[in-house]
Specification:
The complex is a heterodimer of chains A (about 180) and B (about 575).
Chain A lengths: L1 E9 L4 H11 L3 E9 L5 E9 L5 H10 L3 E6 L5 E12 L5 H10 L3 E5 L3 E8 L1 H12 L4 E5 L3 E4 L11 E2 L9
Antiparallel strand pairs in A: 1-3, 1-4, 2-3, 5-7, 5-8, 5-9, 6-7
Chain B lengths: L3 E4 H11 L4 E4 L6 H7 L5 E4 L3 H15 L3 E5 L3 H4 L2 H10 L3 E7 L15 H4 L6 E5 L5 H13 L5 E7 H5 L1 E4 L4 E2 L12 H13 L3 E5 L1 H6 L2 H11 L3 E3 L24 H9 L2 E5 L5 H4 L10 E6 L13 E4 L2 H14 L1 H25 L13 H12 L4 E4 L3 H9 L8 E2 L10 H11 L5 E6 H6 L4 H6 L5 E6 L4 H10 L15 H7 L3 E5 L2 H13 L4 E6 L30
Parallel strand pairs in B: 2-3, 2-4, 4-5, 5-7, 6-7, 10-11, 10-12, 12-13, 13-14, 15-16, 15-17, 17-18, 18-20, 19-20
Antiparallel strand pairs in B: 1-8
Classes of the chains: A alpha+beta (about 180), B alpha/beta (about 575).
């Protein structure tokens, strides 16, 4: 079953690997992963879609929250959230169906970003289901090549961030016997 | 205070001193030469081991026996990779250690330079956290963060990989006064409502059972555990990692639970109506088949790691917090109605104890004895006698480990040191080295099998070099005993590669290193041989030849429920 996770993590070398390593170590397949900087250049937001058994979902979130580079991990599989993806489709077009393809693309709000005698490169954004339909329609016109970006997600409500405050350095670790 | 001009190597040592580090266990190499040059002038003591794996185990022995953060050091490439077993072992048992490794010069990283390895990548999953430091400016903060992460919350190993140019760089050092890790949240307090529910459940239970793990020891909660056990008069087990958390001699202490736990312990956990799990993680060795584990019980689970609560068993009362603090609060609440509730529960409690004692009578945990050969269980009772509950006992991994856990008693925490979660052979001897350095006043026994002992022979040199009075007791049955037991019980006695032919003459081996050793084979001589070992002011290697075909009982077969124990060897079939 696909779990959708949104993470806020520190923009540090190795942070991404820690998150993906946690999943790969358990044999969970990552369907898609996107990550990018937030307004704070030190922090990135990551959206992951991973194949996890339903009864393991809570454990996955807890393990991610344990990672020191992760500030927040939330399960948005059932949550109220806006899901978007970008897809670039290269479609072969004959002289006969060039116009038809462009008109079809327009219906999906897609636009041509490249054009040649071979065909077009079309760009579409939207929720994954809409993009699935767009790809199906394009496929019916001829040979296509598809590059999907992976899901990007944002919650409708800001989730309260629980961060750890600075700790005054304890110079001594007491012997606890 | 004016900022000082220091090299990265000096900065590392300055930070270690501020962390009150007194000993480092390590092995030098090319990229750590600048560090060792700075060590030359440092009051910090460096103990040279003979294999980096043992540096990590020794750092663990130091940490396990004191609660302080153990420190080990290795060079890049093979030095760092040799630490991996010790790091993963610390991770599994939640032991606070910091490993400092050298790395090749920054601009060479990724070029397959001499003695280069992706230490940061390789140790990522085997440590609580790790760092790669290339800039001197980040070094002090990183070292202090490493110690903070290792020692706080659920303790664990942290590795700091430092490039050679960082060691050599010069810069102005200013002390670091605070640590900011926004993503590292530690929950210590425990939810007040859950705490109240737990206390209520404890008074209401007819057959409460305390299941205490290594977390009690990590939290320093021995007094609170004892107070709780006495307040509600519950039987208690301590896991392999928790032995000594409650004094073994305490009347409420049953034994260790699980795969090789006693009959009473496992029956108690199966029949309890309230399982009070404190600082423990419902490991498969303890629970057996989860579906059949504590089937009638409400479960209270107190742990500092939120990911452990609900991982293997969903508790009725989950409490995420420091077990010492949580128990203190629970005790306060219990105290409010103690007089009345103890009275109310007295009949039920007497009945429950009657049942526990009957189980103990039916199948007591008793050592096998013989007049012809030394039984390994007998060896453990003799060590127990000499220890009187006060010695530090490290063990290696295998049958001897189980018998030691069954028959040696501990009055205090941090006396029993063993590789529980990972079960890493070769642990016993170097851990004893670390423990002896940490607690020079203590009698330290390293109980090892002939298999594990041979994995750590190089450290006999370290022992001899520092004249560490460690008493190395080899429980020698000529086999990898636990493997042989499983091959006998589950593979039709097809013994493959479990026989350890050729064992070095201990007198000659110890003698080669300049100390005493002997073999003892007769049960009549065992006591005096052990006494002679203890009386010897320096190290001693005692090779105890024990019965080769003993099996550890009780045994819960893999995948079995813990109340389905095999209690004794199957009777021979009439032919």
């Amino acid at each position: 079953m696909l779990q959708l996770i949104s993470l806020l993590l520190e923009n540090k070398p190795g942070a991404l690997m820690r998150v993906t390593g946690l999943l790969s170590a358990r044999g969970y397949n990552i369907e898609s992963l996107t990550v990018g900087r937030t307004l704070d250049p030190e922090l990135s937001r990551m959206s992951i879609v991973v194949d996890v058994e339903p009864n393991q979902r809570a454990q996955v979130i807890k393990q991610m929250n344990k990672l020191i580079n992760v500030l927040q991990a939330i399960d948005l599989t059932e949550g109220q959230a806006v899901r978007r993806e970008l897809v670039l489709v290269r479609v072969r077009a004959s002289m006969q169906n060039r116009t038809a393809i462009l008109k079809e693309a327009e219906i999906f709000g897609a636009r041509a970003v490249d054009s040649s005698v071979e065909g077009f490169a079309l760009e579409a954004t939207g929720d994954p289901e809409k993009l699935d339909e767009f790809i199906d329609v394009m496929r019916s016109y001829g040979e296509i090549e598809v590059t999907r970006s992976g899901l990007v997600v944002v919650t409708l409500e800001a989730k309260k961030l629980k961060l750890a405050p600075p700790v005054h350095r304890e110079a001594e670790v007491e012997s606890i016997i | 205070m004016p900022a000082n001009l220091m090299s990265g190597a000096q900065v590392v040592l300055e930070c270690l001193q501020r962390e009150k580090v007194e000993v480092i266990f390590g092995y030098p190499g090319g990229v750590t030469l600048p560090l060792y040059d700075a060590l030359f002038d440092s009051p910090i003591r460096h103990v040279l081991v003979r294999h980096e794996q043992n540096a990590a185990f020794a750092a663990q022995g130091y940490a396990r026996s004191t609660g302080k953060v153990g420190v080990c050091c290795a060079t890049s490439g093979p030095g760092a990779t040799n630490l991996v077993t010790g790091l993963v072992d610390a991770m599994m048992d939640s032991i606070p250690i910091v490993a400092i490794t050298g790395q090749v010069t920054s601009k060479l990283i990724g070029s397959d330079a001499f003695q280069e390895a992706d230490t940061f990548g390789i140790t990522r999953s085997g440590t609580k956290h790790n760092f790669l430091v290339k800039n001197l400016a980040e070094l002090p903060k990183t070292i202090h963060e490493a110690f903070h992460i290792a020692a706080s919350g659920r303790p664990g190993p942290v590795l700091v990989d430092i490039t050679k140019d960082c060691f050599q760089a010069q810069g102005h050092y200013a002390p670091v006064n605070s640590i900011h890790l926004p993503g590292y949240r530690v929950y210590t307090e425990g939810h007040a409502g859950q705490i109240r529910r737990a206390a209520q459940a404890m008074w209401e239970a007819k057959r409460p059972f305390v299941y205490a793990g290594g977390g009690i020891i990590a939290a320093g909660a021995r007094d609170e555990l004892r107070a709780l056990v006495e307040m509600i008069d519950a039987p208690a087990v301590c896991t392999l990692m928790g032995l000594g958390g409650l004094p073994s001699m305490h009347p409420n202490f049953i034994s260790l639970p699980g795969m090789h736990g006693s009959y009473a312990a496992n029956m108690g956990m199966t029949e309890t109506d309230l399982l009070i799990a404190l600082g423990t993680r419902f490991d498969d060795r303890v629970t057996g088949r989860l579906a059949a584990f504590a089937p009638h019980a409400k479960v209270i689970h107190v742990d500092i790691d939120p990911a452990e609560v609900g991982k293997n068993r969903v508790p009725d009362v989950p409490i995420v917090g420091d077990v010492k603090k949580v128990l203190a609060r629970i005790l306060e609440i219990l105290e409010e109605t103690a007089g009345e509730m103890k009275q109310k529960n007295s009949t039920a409690r007497a009945a429950w104890w009657g049942q526990i004692k009957e189980w103990q009578r039916e199948h007591p945990l008793e050592p096998t004895m013989s007049t012809d050969e030394i039984k390994p269980q007998h060896l453990m009772t003799e060590i127990d006698r000499l220890s009187g509950g006060e010695a530090i006992v490290t063990s290696d991994v295998g049958q001897h480990q189980m018998w030691a856990a069954q028959f040696i008693r501990f009055n205090h925490p941090r006396l029993w040191l063993n590789s529980g979660g990972l079960g890493a052979m070769g642990f016993g001897l170097p851990a004893a080295i670390g423990a002896q350095f940490a607690r020079p006043d203590k009698l330290v026994f390293a109980i090892v099998g002939d298999g594990g002992f041979q994995m750590s022979i190089p450290e006999l040199a370290t022992i001899a070099n520092h004249a560490l009075p460690v008493k190395i007791i080899v429980a020698n049955n000529g086999y990898l005993g636990m493997i042989r037991q499983w091959q006998e019980l589950f593979y039709n006695n097809r013994i493959c590669s479990a026989k350890l032919d050729t064992f070095p003459d201990p007198e000659k081996l110890a003698g080669a290193y300049g100390f005493k050793g002997r073999t003892v084979e007769s049960p009549r001589e065992l006591r005096s041989a052990l006494q002679a070992a203890v009386d010897e002011p320096g190290p001693y290697l005692l090779n105890v030849r024990v019965s080769p075909f003993e099996n550890v009982y009780p045994m819960v077969p893999a995948g079995g429920a813990i109340n389905e124990m095999v209690l004794a060897p199957p009777l021979p079939v009439e032919v």
